[in-house]
Design the sequence.
């Protein structure tokens, strides 16, 4: 599963880390979170870890790119049962991770783990385009801004026309503003697609989670954002992972019996 948006600051890393932790809580040590925002990846910061090994070191180890057990040694273990493959430490190293490195790393990841969640950031280049074809679902967070929505619509149209985007696309409306600037129906009209889930506005919970390196589903599990993230998990992974609660989107998620876990 890949989380991606052509606009920065819309919650890709927040969504990726929280969904990966939800999956890992049900399947400890069988979930890998890969930070493929190669220049500015913040997965390690969001999880309060200091990686000694990253994708950069993995790319330099030819044997680990071909051998599953060696590959697994580059993953960092998180207390939530999650394994993480971190982005290079600074943007200056990003170019050293090539398309071949990414392709081999993803192939080993899919052999080594039951679930692979990728934070793809915002850049689309030859190193990342294979992600969209490999993924069973692509989660695209959007904010209620016309220019941002137009850019998402245009990019996804281009990926679909090129045959690169073969996965199921899940749009998530991030209500990042205190006031409702656009109604949900307006957002769907601009996108030309249905919004599958939404994240509520909250001036404290997200910021506190990021600053403390403790994602929402662990730092504020009873909060409205955490509940919405769990509902999103049922949409993305299927209700066999997280029992849905409530009505509306939750009831809809309960009907979704087949997901990433439904095939296992």
Sequence:
């Amino acid at each position: 599963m890949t989380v991606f948006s052509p606009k920065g600051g819309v919650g890709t890393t927040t969504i990726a880390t929280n969904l990966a932790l939800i999956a890992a809580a049900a399947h400890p040590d069988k979930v890998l979170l890969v930070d493929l925002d190669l220049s500015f990846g913040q997965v390690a910061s969001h999880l309060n870890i200091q990686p000694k090994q990253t994708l950069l070191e993995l790319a330099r180890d030819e044997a680990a790119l071909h051998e599953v057990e060696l590959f697994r040694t580059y993953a960092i273990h998180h207390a939530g049962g999650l394994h993480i493959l971190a982005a290079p430490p600074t943007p200056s190293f990003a170019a050293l991770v090539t398309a071949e490195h990414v392709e081999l790393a993803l192939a080993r990841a899919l052999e080594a783990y039951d679930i692979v969640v990728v934070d793809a950031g915002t850049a689309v280049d030859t190193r990342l385009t294979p992600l969209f074809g490999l993924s069973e679902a692509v989660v695209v967070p959007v904010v209620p801004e016309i220019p941002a929505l137009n850019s998402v619509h245009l990019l996804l149209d281009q990926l679909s026309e090129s045959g690169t985007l073969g996965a199921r696309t899940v749009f998530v409306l991030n209500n990042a503003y205190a006031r409702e600037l656009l109604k949900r129906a307006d957002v769907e009209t601009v996108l030309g697609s249905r919004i599958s889930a939404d994240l509520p506005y909250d001036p404290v919970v997200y910021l506190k989670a990021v600053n403390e390196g403790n994602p929402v589903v662990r730092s504020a599990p009873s909060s409205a954002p955490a509940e919405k993230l769990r509902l999103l998990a049922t949409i993305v992974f299927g209700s066999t992972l997280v029992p849905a609660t409530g009505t509306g989107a939750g009831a809809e998620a309960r009907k979704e019996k087949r997901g990433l876990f439904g095939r296992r």
In short: Residues 245-264 have pLDDT under 50 and may be disordered. The domain at 2-238 is CATH 3.40.50.300 (Rossmann fold). The radius of gyration is 17 Å. The beta strands are 2-3, 31-35, 76-77, 83-85, 115-119, 137-142, 168-174, 195-199.
